[in-house]
């Protein structure tokens, strides 16, 4: 309990103090200012805000259509549209209120050298932490290739580690053979934490034109449709890395306090909210209230006492009586 004997949403992540376990996910809230225009919304309802993916030079992104709603989910292929790291540091960061919440940069690149350089420039900025996006499925170069190849993942992390002393969060791809093995390699290379998971690759087709509905042909699937996959991946990474005490941001389809609690029980120290904001911009308040009610009901002082408490079912193989 806190000093007043009450449950609290406050938690620590990579040495950073979060007001709540919620992280607003990269690509869903622009550069931290978009939802502040919505009445009743406050960045204070999130422990951290992950800024839009940033590259060394400005990018226009993919051709339209870039977003398509699917059953219980959404396909997106924005293509990392952004104004470039220098503009973000000089023009955007000074306008952010760092007393409201923590801000995390999201670094993307087409080469290992680009990841290094963007990370280096963010190191000399007020940003609180850096997320390495090695798993974006919406670009034709870099991104996915780095995230799905353990040796390349480790190489990117190793170079970014050399470029900064800030906490490094590696965003892991679900589109790979062994996410736990990749995570272990990233820890050895210098990752301080993980974001699990990025979107799954998907497609939608217009049956009349017989063409993909997304201009990029394929996109990243997010929303409740991917939640079971995300939960399993969080559990697998937590099990593989628990001896290293590496925190995880669990993400993928969280749309309620119950969803968030499942991820925390599976091994997440914080939870990412993204797609749900598109239809309920004030959902963070609802999730925070629900998590706090759960902690009080179970007499838990904080979510730290809930992380990774999943009790797996025990079973035995039935013996044939023949």
Describe this entry's structure for a reader:
The protein has 322 residues and is of the alpha/beta class. The chain has a single domain (11-305), classed as Alpha-Beta Barrel (TIM Barrel), CATH 3.20.20.70. Helix content is 29%, strand content 19%. The protein contains nine helices and 16 strands. It has helices spanning 85-92, 112-123, 144-148, 150-163, 179-189, 227-241, 257-266, 276-279, 283-297, and strands spanning 11-13, 16-18, 22-24, 48-54, 67-70, 73-76, 102-107, 129-133, 168-171, 193-196, 200-202, 205-206, 211-212, 219-222, 248-251, 270-273. Strands 3-4-7-8-9-10-15-16 form an eight-stranded parallel β-barrel, surrounded by five helices. The chain has a four-stranded antiparallel β-sheet with strand order 5-6-14-11, with no helix packed on it. Strands 1-2 form a two-stranded antiparallel sheet. α2 links the parallel β7 (102-107) and β8 (129-133). α7 packs across α9 (283-297). The radius of gyration is 19 Å and the shape is globular. It is an enzyme of class 1 (oxidoreductase).
């Amino acid at each position: 309990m806190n000093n007043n004997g009450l449950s609290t949403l406050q938690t620590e992540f990579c040495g950073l103090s979060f007001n709540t376990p919620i992280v607003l996910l990269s690509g869903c809230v622009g550069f931290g200012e978009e939802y502040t225009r919505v009445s009743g919304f406050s960045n204070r309802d999130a422990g951290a805000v992950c800024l839009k993916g940033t590259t060394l030079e400005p990018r226009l992104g993919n051709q339209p259509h870039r977003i398509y709603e699917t059953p219980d989910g959404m396909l997106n292929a924005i293509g990392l549209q952004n104004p470039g790291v220098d503009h973000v540091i000089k023009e955007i960061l000074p306008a952010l209120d760092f007393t409201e919440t923590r801000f995390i940069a999201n670094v993307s690149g087409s080469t290992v050298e680009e990841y290094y350089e963007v990370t280096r420039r963010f190191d000399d900025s007020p940003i609180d932490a850096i997320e390495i996006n090695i798993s974006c499925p919406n670009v034709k170069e870099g991104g996915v290739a780095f995230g799905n190849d353990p040796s390349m993942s480790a190489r990117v992390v190793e170079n970014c580690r050399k470029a900064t002393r800030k906490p490094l969060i590696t965003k892991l791809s679900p589109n790979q053979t062994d996410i736990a093995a990749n995570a272990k390699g990233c820890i050895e290379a210098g990752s301080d934490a993980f974001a699990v998971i990025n979107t799954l690759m998907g497609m939608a087709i217009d049956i009349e034109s017989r063409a993909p509905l997304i201009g990029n042909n394929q996109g990243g699937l997010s929303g409740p449709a991917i939640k079971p996959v995300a939960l399993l991946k969080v559990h697998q990474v937590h099990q593989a890395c628990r001896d290293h005490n590496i925190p995880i941001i669990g993400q993928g389809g969280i749309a309620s306090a119950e969803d968030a609690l499942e991820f925390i029980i599976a091994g997440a120290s914080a939870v990412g909210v993204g797609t749900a904001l598109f239809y309920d911009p004030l959902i963070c308040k609802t999730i925070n209230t629900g998590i706090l009610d759960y902690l009080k009901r179970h007499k838990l002082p904080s979510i730290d006492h809930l992380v990774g408490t999943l009790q797996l079912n025990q079973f035995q193989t039935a013996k044939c009586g023949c």
